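Aim 2, interim progress: modelling of the 1-O-alpha-D-glucopyranosyl-D-fructose-bound target.
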Amino acid sequence: MSHEPWWKSAVAYQIYPRSFMDSNGDGIGDLNGITSKLDHLTALGVDVVWLSPHFDSPNADNGYDIRDYRAVMAEFGTMDDFDRLLAGLTERGIELIVDLVVNHTSDQHAWFVASRSSPDDPYRDFYIWRDGVDGGPPNNYPSFFSGSAWTFDDSTGQYYLHYFARQQPDLNWEHPAVRAEVYDIMRFWLDKGVAGFRMDVIPFISKQPGLPDLTREQLRSPQDTYASGPRVHEFLHEMYVEALAGRDAMTVGEAFGVGFEQAPLFTDARREELSMIFHFDLVRLDRRHWRRVPWTLPQFRAVLQATDDAAGEHGWATSFLCNHDNPRAVSHFGDDSPTWRVASAKALATVMLTQRATPFLYQGDELGMTNFPFRTIDDYDDVEVKGLWRTLVETGKVPGDELLHHLAHTARDHARTPMQWTAAPDGGFTTGTPWLAVNPNTAEINAAEQLDDPESVFHHHRRLIALRRAHPVLVHGAYRDLDPAGERVLAYTRTLAGAQVVVIVNMGADPVEHALPGEVGIGDTLLTSSGPAPLPGSSIVALAGWQSIVAATV
Ligand code: TEU
Ligand code: CA
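Predicted structure of the complex, ligand included:
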């Protein structure tokens, strides 16, 4: 497999800088804080860090609104701090990918300031300006952060387009100068030594010709239309040629709105677009917008299968259960009660780290961090939540209690509370007041204690990451679900040349006896088990609640 690109066998770790580690007591995580915690990453054994935006930003959306792509956010530090972080990672053999947010900029970016200043400004066409229609916006596009995707600008009497907050105007990728600027920004960071990019809502860069209204059907899932503009693949290939070719870079596109059938268009290596994409189907399995709905194990495994199929022979996939926009993995798909928290966090880690895909582990999930007990609307910080409250509750459309009930499971802020380093009430995150409250369970869930406990969630992650490195079958081996209709136990094989492993995961609290199909039996080599070891040679496996097993087969 020596011809395979390095990023296929990598394990990535996402850092949300605002919440990772505060080095100067202002309550906000920063780059020097990350640098002070690199030993944690080395102990875990990850190969790549994805850093959520660290660029200069007025923070309407925690850095996903960039004012200057070549400067570091003042709250996070300086360019020297960035260089030191990168050097520290490099010393440890860890690559860094940064967040490329180029569907939109901040409304304070110099391009937008110029663009809105006059219809004749040379930067006018960097953004998407249209006249209103019948006293309203140019079309019926909704913003993901509530309300219209258009904001009227007094100074020139036109509307500008923003798929997200009004402080996040969408760039006009039809304009060649915009594309040239983006490629230049990419070369700037690659020249510094970053290994690639995570690309924010990248399929949205090509807009629908003429921007027609969405139909009622399309309005249910605007991302599908936003993600299927006619020029997206042309732009991504051009980006590859102009900024990425010959650099051995890793790219991962956030493919919100992209269906599995379209995935190969983005990730088939022969097309020279992206290395891999994030599908939303798993993390949104139990979601209808802000509402939580029930999910089943057959649905869950169907997504794993579809993800693998979509990667196919020429593409590649990602495996993730959380990121900064989603609830915590253990609260979402596991059982975060005191009895089952540890076991279920381990079970999920086993699933995530044994896919034929590059795993992306989100900070704190290696500890089994849980959702936060948010109670009132004021406990939340997120622009998305505030938008929902304004447009649903303040208008009387949805009772506040009902929205809060769902947000307790679905809000983005669950993943954004500070990293729990120690048992102290501040979680060891800051000596000041944290920008978002530390979860009160930091006394029970923290890195310091887990590093000393070989049975911890942390060490389970560490072991699985090491197994991936030692066994290429866990990276490249073909995936076969042994029981697609199974409602309680997830069981699959990974096969490569002469090697085969079987992964068996009890996805619930009840003990269960699971029968493997006749041709698959547990071999002598047990790679890891989070409970009683199975009997070699047996095809009936007894599993404790949330137990997972990875073993060679006979
Ligand atoms: O998110 C893309 C996105 O559309 C959703 O995941 C988003 O979080 C929202 O919940 C949709 O309802 C990316 C970033 O990951 C996110 O943090 C940013 O807020 C967003 O783009 C805008 O840059
Ligand atoms: Ca700080």
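The pocket of calcium ion (ligand 2) is lined by residues 22-24, 26, 28, 30 (CB under 6 Å). The radius of gyration is 23 Å.
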